[in-house]
C-alpha cells in the first residue's frame, strides 16, 4: 500500500507559493475591471428605460446563466479569430472580468434599489448634478451597504481563478499540476494546494472583516 509522502511537494513549496501571487493578481484585476464595468451597467439600468436598460439586464442574464469556463474559452479562441492576439493570462482576466461584471452589476443594483429617496433630495438641495450625486452620494453608500456581498464575490473569484490552469497559466493550481506531473504525488500536492487556498480564503475573510468594521465606524 502506498503511503502519503509530502516531502517531494514540500521541497517545491516556494515554487508553489509563487502561484499564490498570480492567483491573487488574476482575481484582483478581474474584480477591479469587472466592478468598473458593473458600475456602468447599473447606472445605465437605473437611468435609462429604453433599449440600453434592456441590454444591461440582458448582459447580466446571459453571463450569469452560462458557465464562466465557457466564457473564458470564448475569449481565448474568438479573439485570435478576430485578429486580436492575447496571452492566456490576459484571456483569463478578460473572461473573468466579463463574468464578474454581470454578477457585480446585480449586487450593486440590489444596493441601488435600497438607497433612500432622501439621499437624492439632499444631493439636489446641495446643487449636485447627476454625475456628482452618483460619485459622491449614491455609489459610496451602496459600496458600504453591499461590501459583504462584494467581498464574498471576490473570495469566490479567488477560488474560481483555478480555471486559469486549464489555459496554461501558472497560478496556484497550474503550478500544483506541474509539481504533480513531475513528482507523481498528485494527492499530496492537491492536499497542500487545497490547504493554501483555505489559508488564503481565511486571511481574506479576516481582512474584509476589518475593512467592514472600519466602514461601519465611518457611517
UniProtKB/TrEMBL annotation:
It comes from the Bacteria. Residues 20-208 form the ABC transmembrane type-1 domain. Pfam families: BPD_transp_1. CDD domains: TM_PBP2 (cd06261). It is found in: Cell inner membrane; Cell membrane. It is a multi-pass membrane protein. Keywords: Cell membrane, Membrane, Transmembrane, Transmembrane helix, Transport. The keyword Membrane applies. InterPro entries: AA_ABC_transptr_permease_3TM, ArtM/GltK/GlnP/TcyL/YhdX-like, MetI-like, MetI-like_sf. The chain crosses the membrane at residues 20-44, 72-94, 100-128, 149-169, 189-211. Belongs to the binding-protein-dependent transport system permease family. HisMQ subfamily. This is Amino acid ABC transporter permease. It comes from Gluconobacter frateurii NRIC 0228.
